Amino acid sequence: MKKEKYITKMYKIRLAKNETDLFGVPVVSEQWDTLCKAILDDFNHERLQFTHPQDNKTKYIRHYVLPCCYGFAVINVGLFRNSSDYGSVAINIMSENYEPYVVLADYTPAFANHEVLADIVSRALNWVMKDKGVSVIMEPWEVNAGEKKVMWKRDCVDTYMVRRKLQTDNIMMVFGHEQLKKSRQKRKSMSFRNYIKSGMEGKVLTWLHSEIDNLDQPIDMMRPMRALYEQKKLFFRQKPPIDAFVAEFHKEGMIRKSSYNKYMDTRIDVYYDDITYDDTKKRMKEKFGIAG
User: Cβ(42)–Cβ(89) under 8 Å?
Assistant: First the structure.
């Protein structure tokens, strides 16, 4: 399905202390610097948690189109199962021209409607502010479509130009996706499928999902991966990086890079005398018709 463009919804942002005045009205907070720092820190340390508002289990991946600079950031949030499986979130909390706002753009078909994505963003912002005794309140802001586009597009361009001056060694400044390493090393694909040998993608992914999807412990979820990777010449072009694994199987926060690399290192007999692993290998061989 081709992704529709320029579908946008705008929200005002207010900060309120988790207390009320004599009339029961939330007390206004001005901790914008704190929220700005949280978004800035998220670029390198993933402070924000984007989870589905209903099941609280589905965790969404975020990629920065434009990292936070002077309170403005653009983030793509979604599951990234295909080229349309995300929505764009522009956040401006330090604007000199307008009230703090969030713009949700191109959120279909990844999300049913703007309310779902707004709830996901609101929960993420509130999560990083909960220890400060502050709530982040997002309210729909009805703005003329033309004016709305000019507002956030101008802020986006202005922020980009500022970052270009501040980061002269990398004028792209990750504009377009994720952080580009200063070493300019080739960016690895986020698609797990791209690491599987041609013609085997469907069968490998179907089996791995059937084995891994309901597991939440590193030692358990990595048994099927290790079993297949021991036969890597049959199944893989090259070793899938942890980011691709986590994105494909939705294991955000469940496994560390060091653990992932340990279980994928075929030089280490990490599953020695592990009956469960022996059973996993047996199922794998039966599934793919491997003798022995």
Answer: no
